[in-house]
Amino acid sequence: MSIEIDLSGKKALVTGASQGIGAQIARTLHRAGCQVILNHPDLAGGRTKADAESLADELCQQRPGSAHVYPADVADPMAVEAMMRSIDADLGGIDALICNAGILRDRTIAKMSIEDWQAVIDVNLSGVFYCCKFGLEILRDGGSIVNMGSLSASAGLHGQSNYAAAKSGVQALTRVLSRECAKRSIRVNAIAPGLIETSMSATISETVRTEMLKVIPWRKFGEPQDVADAVLFLCSPLAGYITGHVLEVNGGWRG
C-alpha cells in the first residue's frame, strides 16, 4: 500500500518564497494540498513582488484561492509582526511556518564591511527569530516550524563568516525553540542544505564549483526540489516524533 502525504486544509507560510528554494517549497506544499502564503521582501514593487505574484497566479490556476502574497522584510520586526497580524485577520491561523528567507554577502573577514556583516545577521538570523516569535502567535497547536540552516554552519567555508555565524545561530535557535514549543505539540526542525542549484549559487565561479564537486560523494549539486521534499516530510505526520533536529540535505558533503 502506498503512503501519500496529504496536507489538505492546512495553511503554510513560506518566507523568501518568490524564487529559488522558497518557490519550490511553496509549490511542493501546495501540491500536497496546502494553502500557501508567499512572503517576499520587496515593498517597492520590484522583482520579488512580481515573482511572488506570478507564482501565486500559477498556483491559483491549479486551485482557486490557494495562494496568497504578503510582503515584509523579515529583518524588520515591526514588519514581521504586522504581516502575521494581517495573515491572521485575513486567513486565520497557520499550520506550518517555513523560515527560508536569506541573503549572501561573502567576503573574507579582513575585507568584510560592517554593513555586510550586519545585513546577513539581520536577515538570516534575526529574521528567523522575528518570524518564529510573531509566527507562534498565529501558529496552531500541533503545527510545525522548519528553519533553513546550512552546511556552512559546520564547514567553515571561505568568506562566509557572516553567513556561517547566522546559520549556526539558526540551528541553535531551532533546538532551543523545539523544547519551548513541545508543550503545544509544535515541532521545530531545521534543514541544512549543501550547495543547491539556484540563482544565488550561480554566482560561484566555475573553478570553485569544480573543487566543491570533488568533495561531494554524489558528485553533483542539489536541486531546490531536494530541499522542498525534506520540508514536506518535516511538515507531515510522518515526522510526528521528530523535533529539534537539523536534517542535512547535501549529497554526503561534510565540508
Give the number of DSSP strands. 7
Uncertain segments? none
Q: Which sheet architecture does the biggest sheet show?
A: 7 strands, parallel
Shape: globular
Q: In percent, how helical is the residue content?
A: 40-55%
Full CATH superfamily name: NAD(P)-binding Rossmann-like Domain
Number of helical regions: 8
Classify the fold: give the CATH topology: Rossmann fold
Mean pLDDT: 94
Largest sheet, order of strands side by side? 3-2-1-4-5-6-7
**What class do helices, strands and sheet pairing give?**
alpha/beta
CATH top level class name: Alpha Beta
Succession of helices and strands: EHEHEHEHEHHEHHE
End-to-end CA span: 39 Å
Round the Cα radius of gyration to an integer and report it: 17 Å
What proportion strand?
15-25%
CATH architecture: 3-Layer(aba) Sandwich
Number of domains: 1
Domain Ketoreductase: 10-194
Organism: Singulisphaera sp. Ch08
Keywords: Oxidoreductase
InterPro entries: KR_dom, NAD(P)-bd_dom_sf, Sc_DH/Rdtase_CS, SDR_fam
